[in-house]
Amino acid sequence: MSKKIFVLLFILVSASVSVYAFTKTASSEPVLVQSGEEKHWCPVCGMNLKMFYKTNHTSKTEDAKHRQYCSIRCLVVDMKKQNIPTESVEVVDAKTEKLIPAHKAFYVVGSKVKGTMSKVSKLAFASKEDALEFIKKHQGKLVDFTTVLKLAQDSLVFDTSMIAKKKKKKIYPMGKKIFYKMCDTHINLAEYKEINELKSALKNDNLCRPLKEKQLQATALYLWEVKRLGDLGDITGKISVQKDEKCPVCGMFTYKYPKWVAQIFYEDAGEQKHYSFDGVKDLMKFYFNPKEWSNDKVTTKKDISKILVTDYYSQVAIDATKAYYVVGSDIYGPMGDELIPFIDEEDAKTFYMDHKGTKVIKFKDITPEEIYKLDE
Amino acid sequence: MMIELKNLTKIYELNTNDKVIALKDISLSINEGEIVVLKGSSGSGKSTILSLIAALSKPTSGEVIVDAKQISKLPDSFASVYRRDNIGFVFQKYNLLTNLSVEDNILLPLIPLNPSQLEVDAKIDEVMKKFEIIHKKDTLVRNLSGGEQQRVAIARANVNDPKIIIADEPTANLDEKLSLNFIEILRELKSLNKTIIIATHDPLFFGLDFIDREIQIDNGKIA
Amino acid sequence: MSSKINIYLIKYAINSILRQKYKTFFIVTIFTFLVFLLTSIFFITNSIRYELDSTVDALPQIIVQKIKAGRHYDIDVDKVDEILELSGVSDAVARVWGYYYFENAGVNFSVVGIDKYENQYKNSLQSIVNKFDFEESSDEPFMVVGQGVKEVMNSSYFKEYFNFIKPDGTLKKVNIRGVFDSDTQLESNDMIVMSNETIREIFDIDETKATDIVVKVANPQEVSMVASKIKLMLPDSRIITTQDLKISYQNIFDYKSGVFLALFIVSLFTFFIIIYDKSSGLSSEEKREIGILKAIGWRVDDVLKEKFYESFIISFFSYMLGSTLTFAYVYIFQAPVLREIFVGYSQLKTTFELPFIFDLQTLFLVFFISVPVYVAATIIPSWKVATLEADEVIR
Ligand SMILES: Nc1ncnc2c1ncn2[C@@H]1O[C@H](COP(=O)(O)OP(=O)(O)O)[C@@H](O)[C@H]1O
Ligand SMILES: [Mg+2]
C-alpha cells in the first residue's frame, strides 16, 4: 500500500519536475546558418544562439546573406535596419529542433516558459499537435507568424527598455570590469561591423583571456553599446558639495541634504564656479531671478553654463535641462514640497504613480508661478 | 596691645532648664607687654576667659576689645584671621595633630597665608631652635614626651610671631623640672615684649618676679 | 590675598590622605571598583551597539528570500532580472551562501560565494576581492578564509587546502589562498569566501538557483516602496529590509541591556549608600582636627579648600584608575565575564570583538556622577563642623 503511494508520489514529482525542465538550449548540435566564427552569436544582441536555440529565427537578406537571431525580438530589430523579405524567415521547431519556414509554423505565445529578450515567450512548432500538446503542459495561446510578428513589433519598445534597465544596472558595469581586467584595452572597435564579430574576435583572436560565455557577453555588450559610443551612458557619479556651501536661496548647508543637492555652474574669469542648492525648488527660484540671490557674476540665465540635479532614484548627477520633474508627490525635500527630478521619463512616471504626484513636467515647462505655488 | 574685657558674662546652656553661668559680669583690662596670671580653682572660669579673648567663643553679653577692636562680635572667618595674626594659644591639652611630625605641626598656622618656601623654613627653624625642639623635627608628635609636646605647642603658638600669647594650665601635665623650664621660657617671651596671659592653679607661678599681675577668679568673678 | 595655588595646602591634603591609610585604601578600592563597573558597562554597551550598527549598516538594504512551506528555499536567479526592472533599484545580486558544518572540530563555517565581476553587496567583500586576486588562473578552486577559520583548519592539519564533503559524499579539495582580517568584525571570523562556482559545487546548488537575492536601492527613502513592489511581484518571497533587521537586533540588545541597567543601578546604589554614610557625620577625630585648625587661625574656607583637595585627589585618582582599568579590561582583555551577559548576541554572531571607541561622553558622565558627588559628600559635613564654634569642638 505504502509502496503504491510512494510510486504515485514519485510520478507526481517527476512530472512536476518536467514542467520546469523545458530548456531553450539545443539538445544536440544546433544548425547555424551564418558563416565564420561569429556564427555562434546573434548579430543583433550578441547572445549565444545555442543557449536560446529553441527561440532562434533565421533570415536571408536581400543581398543573400544568412542571418540567425536569438529570438524574434532581434529579428524585428534587424528588419527595421535592413530589408528582409518575410518569406525568407525560418524558425526553430521547439519540438524537433529543425528549421522550418516561419509563415507555416504554429506559434505558442504567453506560455509559462520565459521569453527570450521579451516578457512574453514565442515558441514555434511545425505540427499543430505538438503546439497543442505544449499548450497543455505550459499554457499559452496558439497564433500564426503574422500575429507573432505584429506582437513582437508592438512590444519592442517595452522589451527594449526592460532589457536596457538590466544592462545599465548590471551588465555594463560588469562588462567594463572584465574588459579592463581581462582584455587587451587597445582594441579597435571600428573594425567590427556587428556584435557577433566582436565577440568572435574577443574569444578567438586572444583579445581577452579565456572567459565564460556570460562574462564574454557582458564584455561584448559593454564594448559594443557603451564604449564604442564613447562611454556616454556611463554614470557620472554624485554631485559633490563642500561642507561650507550654503544654499544661496534658503541659507542652509547643502552637504546635509545629499539626496537633494543641485548645482548651477557659471564662468568667472575663465574658472568654473558654482552655486549649490538643497533642492530643485530653490535652484529654480535662483534660475528665474539670479540677480536676487547671486553675486554680480550671474545676472541672467545666459550666464549659467550648466545645471545639475540629483536623480531621485539613482542619486547621481543629471543634466537638469534633460530631466523630468514630478510635482505634488508625497515625498518632501528639506524645504518641503519639491520638484523631484528623473533622467528617465519612465522612472518619472513610475514615481508619479507610486507617490501620488499631480504631474510630470519637463525643465522648459517649469514656470516661476509653479515654483512659488509649492511653498503655499 | 591693649586687651579690655567689659562686663563679660558667659552662660552655657546645656538644655532649656539647665544652664551653667561660667562668667558673671567680668571687667578687666590688660596692657600691652603685660604678663598676667589668672588663678583660681578648677571650674572657676579661667579657660572661658581665655577662650573669649582668643575669639574661640562668643560672650553671652559684654565685650572683648583688643586694640580698640570689638573681637566678640567678629564674624567667624574674621575671628580666624584675628587669631592667626594676633594670638598664640598654648592649649591645656596642647591640641597638636599627633599623627603629624613636629615640623608639620608647627607649619599649620602658616598654611593659610600661602607663604613662600624660604619664609616658612626660616620661621619654623627659628621657633624650633628657640624652643629647643629642632632635634626632633621629623618625629611624630605622638612619640614625644609631655614636655616635648608642650614645646611643640609653644613653638606653634609663636611661629606667626603673635603679639598675644595665651597658655591654659601650661604645667598641668609636667613634672616640677619641666614646669620650671616653662617658667624660664615665659621669662624669655616677656623679654620679647609680648602680652602674656596664663591661666593656672599651679602655685609655682605665684609670686614670680616677672609676673606683672595675678588675678584671682572665683565662681566666674574676679575676687 | 595671593591667588596662586597653595602648595602647602595641597601637601597637607596629600599628607592627610596618606596618613589615613586604611580609610584611603577602602575608599579608593570601592570608588575605583564602582567607576570601573560603570564605565565598563557603558563601554561594552556602546561598543556592542556600535558593532551592531556597523554590522547592520553594512548589510544589504533588502534581502529577498523564497519561502516555501514556511521554510527558506533556494530562489530562481532569473528573479534578479525582474527586480532590476524596478525603478529605484540600483543593483540586485543573487547570493549563494550557506553554513558548512566541520564535524572534526564541531564548528560551523559560513561559506559565502561571490562573483568577482559583480558589484559586491558588502564593502568587506569588495576589499577581499580587491586584495586577493579572485582569478581562477588554474582549475584549482580556492578560497579566502577568516582568521577563526584558519585557526580551526590549522589545528586539523589543513594548512594548504581543505576537503569539503559534498552532499553526495565525495570530497572537494579547495586551496586556501589567504586569510583576511577586516577592520570591523563583520562576521568575518568564521567566514569563508569562494567563487560562486565552487560553492555551488560544494552545496550542490543548481546554476539557476541562489540562496537569496540582495537588492541595493540608491535612495534609502525608496527602500520600503521597492520592498513592497518586490513582494507584489514575488508573492512567495520574504522581504527583509535593513530596518527590520535593525529592529530585531535591537530587541535582543535591549533585553540584554536590561541586565546591564540592573547592574548599573546596583552600583549607583552602593555608591550613594557610601555617600550617605559619609555625609551623615564625621568621626570625632576628624572633628577635632577641624577644631584645632580653626583654633590656630584657619578660616572656614581654608578648611573647606583642604577638604576639597583631599576628596578631589582621592576621587579623581580612583576615577582615573577605574577608567584605565576599564580600558584595559574591555579593549585589551575583551571584557571577560561581563561580556557573557551578551551570550544572546554572541549566538547571533559566533565571535566578535569589541571595537575600540573612545567614548568621551561616558567618561564625562561617570566623572560627573562620581567625583563631584564624592567631593560634595566630603565637604558638606566638614562645612557643618567648621562653622561651629571652635571652642566647642576642641574642648
Ligand atoms: N562647653 C561647656 N559647656 C558647658 N559648661 C561648660 C563648658 N565649658 C565650661 N563649662 C563650665 O563653665 C565653668 C567654667 O569652666 P572653665 O572656664 O573651664 O573653668 P576653669 O578653666 O577655671 O577650670 C565650669 O563650671 C564648667 O563646667
Ligand atoms: Mg580650665
Write the topology of this structure.
The complex is a heterotrimer of chains A (376), B (223) and C (395).
Chain A: H1 2-20, E1 57-60, E2 66-69, H2 72-81, E3 90-92, E4 99-101, E5 106-109, E6 122-125, H3 128-138, E7 141-143, H4 145-154, H5 156-182, H6 195-204, H7 213-227, E8 262-268, E9 271-277, H8 280-288, H9 290-293, E10 304-310, E11 317-319, E12 324-333, E13 336-342, H10 345-354, E14 359-362, H11 368-374
Helix pairs in contact in A: 5-7, 6-7, 8-11
Chain B: E1 3-15, E2 18-30, E3 35-39, H1 46-53, E4 61-66, E5 69-70, H2 76-86, E6 87-90, H3 102-107, H4 117-130, H5 146-158, E7 164-168, H6 176-191, E8 195-199, E9 213-218, E10 221-222
Parallel strand pairs in B: 3-8, 3-9, 6-7, 7-8
Antiparallel strand pairs in B: 1-2, 1-4, 4-5, 9-10
Helix pairs in contact in B: 4-5
Chain C: H1 7-19, H2 21-58, E1 62-68, E2 71-73, E3 75-76, H3 79-84, E4 89-95, E5 97-102, E6 107-114, H4 123-131, E7 142-146, H5 147-155, E8 161-165, E9 171-180, E10 191-195, H6 196-203, E11 209-210, E12 212-217, H7 223-233, E13 237-241, H8 242-279, H9 284-295, H10 300-332, H11 343-348, H12 360-386, H13 390-394
Parallel strand pairs in C: 6-10, 7-9
Antiparallel strand pairs in C: 1-2, 1-12, 1-13, 3-11, 4-12, 5-6, 7-10, 8-9
Helix pairs in contact in C: 1-10, 2-8, 2-10, 2-12, 8-12, 10-12
The structure holds adenosine-5'-diphosphate and magnesium ion.
Please tally the helical runs of chain C, counting DSSP H or I stretches of 4 or more residues.
13
Number of strands of chain C: 13
Mean pLDDT of chain C: 83
Assign an overall shape of chain C. Answer: elongated
**What pattern of helices and strands is seen along the backbone of chain A?**
HEEHEEEEHEHHHHEEHHEEEEHEH
Task: Give the percentage of residues in beta strands of chain C.
Answer: 15-25%
| Total discrete domains of chain C | 2
What portion of residues of chain C is helical? 40-55%
What string gives the helices and strands of chain C in order? HHEEEHEEEHEHEEEHEEHEHHHHHH
Alpha-carbon Rg of chain A, integer: 27 Å
Structure description:
The complex is a heterotrimer of chains A (376), B (223) and C (395). Chain A has three domains: 21-154, no CATH class; 160-227, no CATH class; 262-373, no CATH class. In chain A, the strands form four sheets. A four-stranded antiparallel β-sheet of chain A has the order 2-1-3-4. Chain A has a four-stranded antiparallel β-sheet with strand order 9-8-10-11. With 376 residues, chain A is α+β, with helices and mostly antiparallel strands. Chain A has helices spanning 2-20, 72-81, 128-138, 145-154, 156-182, 195-204, 213-227, 280-288, 290-293, 345-354, 368-374, and strands at residues 57-60, 66-69, 90-92, 99-101, 106-109, 122-125, 141-143, 262-268, 271-277, 304-310, 317-319, 324-333, 336-342, 359-362. Chain A contains eleven helices and 14 strands. Chain B is an alpha/beta fold. Chain B has helices at residues 46-53, 76-86, 102-107, 117-130, 146-158, 176-191; strands at residues 3-15, 18-30, 35-39, 61-66, 69-70, 87-90, 164-168, 195-199, 213-218, 221-222. In chain B, strands 6-7-8-3-9-10 form a six-stranded mixed β-sheet, sandwiched between helices. In chain B, a hairpin with a 2-residue loop joins β4 and β5 (69-70). In chain B, α4 (117-130) crosses α5. In chain C, the strands form three sheets. Chain C has a six-stranded mixed β-sheet. Helix content of chain C is 54%, strand content 18%. Chain C starts with 6 loop residues before the first helix and ends with a helix. Chain C has 395 residues and is α+β, with helices and mostly antiparallel strands. Classes of the chains: A alpha+beta (376), B alpha/beta (223), C alpha+beta (395). Chains in contact: A-C, B-C. Chains B and C meet through α2 of B and α1, α9, α10 and α13 of C. The complex binds adenosine-5'-diphosphate (ADP) and magnesium ion (MG). Adenosine-5'-diphosphate (ADP) is lined by residues 12, 14, 20, 22, 40, 42-48 of chain B. Magnesium ion binds at residues 46-47, 168-169 of chain B.
